[in-house]
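Inverse folding, one chain.
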């Protein structure tokens, strides 16, 4: 490298370090903000000055209590109602209701998947089995109606 290039690099590095030190020193110096300075003889610190100002404003509020003795206020009546305690609901609101059929099967066989597959294949009935089932249902319905003394029903 040339001597002039090395000199330029050293000057740039020194300037960057100098600028960093300059800005670091600027950030650590206390500021003379007027909101931090106390207005009481200049000797007290301003910690809590804002809270003290708000407290002074609140304490200067004057509430007229003659409203509470007026006829309008005295004509008001209490209409609150006591909240009655009730029994809690079910322990598990998602559990099946006793006495009602559950829309979901609660037991799923997991140990024998072949049994599950066999049961689903048995639910697929042929049209002959369907017509036989309808005929059986029609016979049961007719025997029920005959026992009650009503007319017979023809089911296709």
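Residues assigned per position:
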């Amino acid at each position: 490298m040339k001597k002039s290039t090395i000199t330029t690099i050293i000057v740039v590095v020194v300037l960057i370090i100098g600028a960093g030190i300059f800005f670091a020193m600027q950030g650590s110096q206390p500021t003379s903000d007027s909101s931090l300075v106390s207005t009481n003889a200049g000797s007290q610190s301003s910690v809590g000055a804002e809270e003290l100002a708000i407290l002074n404003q609140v304490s200067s509020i004057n509430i007229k209590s003659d409203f509470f003795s007026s006829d309008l206020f005295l004509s008001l009546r209490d209409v609150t109602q006591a909240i009655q305690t009730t029994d809690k609901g079910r322990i598990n609101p998602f559990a099946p209701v006793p006495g009602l059929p559950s829309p979901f099967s609660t037991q799923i066989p997991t140990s024998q998947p072949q049994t599950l597959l066999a049961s689903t294949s048995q639910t697929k009935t042929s049209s002959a089995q369907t017509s036989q089932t309808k005929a059986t249902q029609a016979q049961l319905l007719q025997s029920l109606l005959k026992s009650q003394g009503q007319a017979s029903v023809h089911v296709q």
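The chain is about 45% helix and 0% strand. The chain has a mean pLDDT of 75.
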